[in-house]
Design goal:
Number of domains: 2
CATH topology of the largest domain: Rossmann fold
Shape: elongated
Number of strands: 17
Radius of gyration: 23 Å
Strand content: 15-25%
CATH class of the largest domain: Alpha Beta
CATH superfamily of the largest domain: Phosphoglycerate kinase, N-terminal domain
Helix content: 25-40%
Structural class: alpha/beta
Distance between the termini: 15 Å
Largest sheet: 6 strands, parallel
Length: 398
């Protein structure tokens, strides 16, 4: 696939100061990193630039410090983790601009790596303030963006720097954009999208975009209840946005006009209480008792979804089919995930998944590594699926 943006293949980094924007917004517990996935994703770009003699200056944010220094959101605790995972020393600067940062950057030798303090400790980062951008840009010769997860924000370190310096996509950004292009940009058809989660209200833009671009849209989780209710079915005490019935019907009408089949549950796993090991039973969706909740799709629905996955050449997945965090309400999500993984492993399916709950569900099913691509970018992945331009990507286009 030909990319529209410049990558590290186009960059001459030897002897250059390379400002590398990465995603280090990692989960922490008791001052320790509890999940290293995002760090492992940025290692290839760091190593490649370092190996080619570039001086790697890492830019990142952590949390929401609201434009002021906050010791609890310092990036310094990540320095030893980065050093250990890279197998080389990583320096640290107490600020990302000013004399401290400038002094440290001046002392770098070819191949060195330094991490600058949280860019969001300055209000100019989120404001994309020209003065702040200039001060950041003065530290580098080249800008490489490897943080797709922050690409939906027009911040100084994601969009502003690309206006001041020669700019390239890092290897993680490149992999993400190429996978997304396979998923929805120019996909092999038929394309099936699986969208789950609790609320339709958070995914109206997503559903409205997808029905025009995919051949079948599987709707699961609490969202499916809203669609079932919009069709006049009684969903009992299930999580349901009854006030969005008109929206659901409008999305179904758009899908019909676009030739997209909407796949809703035909049977459901119900229970009277939402807790692990609660008594549950399977009923048809038009026979849900008044005092029960739909907590998962049923076995017949799984068969329908699997049949669509068998037809599909491309799968885009965001959100679980049921309340997967609590057994036995994880059955449908696990079954569908494993089926998609099997089809992907045989080369019959290109599968692209993303979003926090989705990644957790695929990990729980033990198949995250079997999908073609799993995006760790929550908001950016969602906005891309909604068809919205991402400022941090648009600015990189050649």
């Amino acid at each position: 696939m030909t990319t529209q943006f410049k990558t590290l293949d186009d960059a001459d980094v030897a002897g250059k100061r390379v400002l590398l924007r990465v995603d280090l917004n990692v989960p922490m517990q008791d001052g320790k990193v509890s999940d290293r996935t995002r760090i492992s994703r940025i290692l290839p770009s760091i190593r490649e630039i370092s190996d080619k003699g570039g001086r790697v200056i890492l830019l990142a944010h952590f949390g929401r410090p609201k434009g002021r220094p906050n010791p609890e959101m310092s990036l310094e605790p990540l320095t030893p983790v980065l050093s250990e995972m890279l197998g080389m020393p990583v320096g640290f600067s107490d600020d990302c601009i000013g004399p401290i940062a400038a002094g440290i950057v001046t002392g770098l030798k070819d191949g060195d790596v330094v991490l600058l303090e949280n860019t969001r400790f300055h209000a100019g980062e989120e404001a994309n303030d020209e003065d702040f951008v200039s001060r950041l840009a003065s530290l580098g010769d080249i800008f490489v963006n490897d943080a797709f997860s922050a690409a939906h924000r027009a911040h100084a370190s994601t969009e502003g720097l690309a206006r001041h310096l020669p700019s390239y996509a890092g290897r993680t950004m490149q992999a993400e954009l190429e996978a997304l292009e396979q998923g929805l940009g120019d996909p092999a058809r038929p394309v099936v999208a699986v969208v789950g989660g609790a609320k339709v209200s958070t995914k109206i833009d997503l559903l409205s975009n997808l029905v025009k671009r995919v051949d079948a849209l599987v709707i699961g989780g609490g969202m499916a209840n809203t669609f079932l209710a919009a069709q006049g079915k009684d969903v009992g005490k299930s999580l349901c946005e009854h006030d969005l019935a008109d929206t659901a019907r409008a999305i179904m009408a758009t899908a019909k006009d676009a030739g997209c089949e909407i796949v809703l549950p035909v049977d459901a796993v119900i229970a009277r209480e939402f807790k692990a090991g609660a008594d549950s039973e399977v009923v048809w969706v038009d026979a849900v008792p008044n005092d029960a909740m739909i907590l998962d799709a049923g076995p017949e629905t799984v068969k329908v979804v699997s049949a669509w996955l068998d037809k599909a050449k491309t799968l885009v997945w965001n959100g679980p089919l049921g309340a997967f965090e609590i057994p036995p309400f994880d059955t449908a999500t696990m079954a569908a995930a494993r089926h998609a993984a099997e089809r992907t492993k045989t080369g019959e399916l290109t599968s692209v998944a993303g979003g926090g709950d989705t990644v957790a569900a695929l990990n729980q099913a033990g198949v995250a590594d079997d999908f073609t691509y799993v995006s760790t970018a929550g908001g950016a992945f969602l906005e891309w699926m909604e068809g919205k331009p991402l400022p941090g990507v648009e600015i990189l286009k050649a």
